[in-house]
């Protein structure tokens, strides 16, 4: 953890210790902190992308099967904005349909457009081959406008893991006070690292989080691969995956309140820049 991250997290540390959580437990929890970038349409941070806008893709890239959400200019991201091995330049384009579906189906995609690529504008409505008016109305409510970056710090928002081989769940391994620590994070987060509609890196969050949303996404990716609806190889080990981005869609899209989109990717695919192998999971509590 950098000195700046340590200083920013001092209100969390002070409150946790004041609530009689042992110092060793607090320090182990703080050691899990990760840098992330929060993207908002207001504020005074640098513009690093935009919600919506024209859909610009290389000629050999197929039309994505899900609505266009946002584009991120990787060269404009602040230094050390995340701990992800992202390319130093080019654009990441995020696509998603913010609705739950069968557990063996990805609900979005990611396209990486390298710097200097020849691109042409595409039809942003090409995903809707059935011309579903209700979904077109939803798509029209997707946010639009420049995205500004704020360097932030992220701690786990989940407190439990499913127990292998038996029903139920337990505290995060190595963190017997994880439930209390998550509660302290919830009560101090707004003062430390306010949420925004889009986050790059860090830990996944959603309206009703108990176990790790990334773990849920991984289990869905495994089932999708087993059903032949997503190409393998797929690791079932959550440690082999990272959160690429979170979109709190419910902040922007009326009728989809509480919906959150999680784009996750295997570490090996990220290192190889295989963004086409990102998997998209959606939490929605209608």
What does the secondary structure layout of this molecule look like, with pairings?
Layout: H1 3-8, H2 10-18, H3 23-30, E1 34-40, E2 47-51, E3 55-57, E4 68-73, E5 91-96, E6 108-113, E7 120-122, H4 133-140, E8 145-154, E9 160-162, E10 169-171, H5 178-192, E11 198-201, H6 213-226, E12 241-247, E13 260-266, H7 267-271, E14 279-283
Antiparallel strand pairs: 1-8, 1-11, 2-4, 2-8, 3-7, 4-5, 5-6, 9-10, 11-12, 12-13, 13-14
Helix pairs in contact: 2-5
What would you note in describing this structure?
The chain is an alpha+beta fold and 286 residues long. It has one domain (3-283): Roll (Hypothetical protein YwqG fold), CATH 2.30.320. Helix content is 23%, strand content 26%. It has helices spanning 3-8, 10-18, 23-30, 133-140, 178-192, 213-226, 267-271; strands spanning 34-40, 47-51, 55-57, 68-73, 91-96, 108-113, 120-122, 145-154, 160-162, 169-171, 198-201, 241-247, 260-266, 279-283. The strands form 3 sheets. Strands 6-5-4-2-8-1-11-12-13-14 form a 10-stranded antiparallel sheet. Strands 3-7 form a two-stranded antiparallel sheet. A two-stranded antiparallel sheet has the order 9-10. A hairpin with a 6-residue loop joins strand 9 (160-162) and strand 10 (169-171). It is globular and about 55 Å long.
């Amino acid at each position: 953890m950098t000195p700046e991250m340590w200083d920013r997290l001092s209100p969390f540390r002070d409150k946790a210790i004041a609530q009689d959580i042992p110092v060793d437990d607090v320090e182990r929890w703080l050691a899990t902190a990760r840098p992330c970038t929060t993207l908002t349409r207001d504020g005074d941070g640098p513009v690093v992308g935009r919600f919506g806008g024209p859909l610009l893709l290389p000629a050999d890239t197929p039309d994505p099967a899900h609505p266009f959400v946002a584009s991120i200019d990787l060269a404009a991201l602040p230094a050390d904005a995340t701990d992800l091995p992202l390319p130093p330049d080019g654009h990441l384009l995020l696509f998603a349909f913010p609705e739950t579906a069968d557990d063996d189906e990805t609900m979005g995609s990611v396209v990486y457009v390298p710097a200097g690529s020849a691109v042409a504008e595409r039809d942003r409505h090409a995903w809707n081959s059935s011309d579903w008016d209700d979904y077109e109305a939803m798509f029209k409510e997707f946010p639009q406008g420049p995205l500004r970056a704020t360097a932030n710090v992220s701690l786990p928002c989940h407190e439990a893991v499913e127990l292998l081989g038996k029903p139920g769940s337990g505290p995060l391994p190595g963190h017997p006070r994880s439930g209390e620590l998550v509660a302290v994070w919830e009560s101090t987060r707004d003062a430390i690292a306010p949420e925004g509609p889009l986050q790059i890196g860090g830990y996944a969050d959603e309206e009703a989080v108990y176990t790790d949303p990334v773990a849920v996404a991984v289990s869905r990716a495994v089932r999708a691969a087993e059903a032949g609806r997503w190409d393998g190889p797929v690791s079932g080990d959550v440690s082999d995956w990272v959160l690429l981005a979170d979109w709190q869609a419910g902040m922007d899209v009326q009728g989809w309140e509480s919906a959150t989109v999680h784009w996750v990717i295997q570490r090996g695919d990220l290192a190889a820049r295989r963004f086409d192998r990102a998997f998209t999971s959606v939490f929605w509590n209608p």
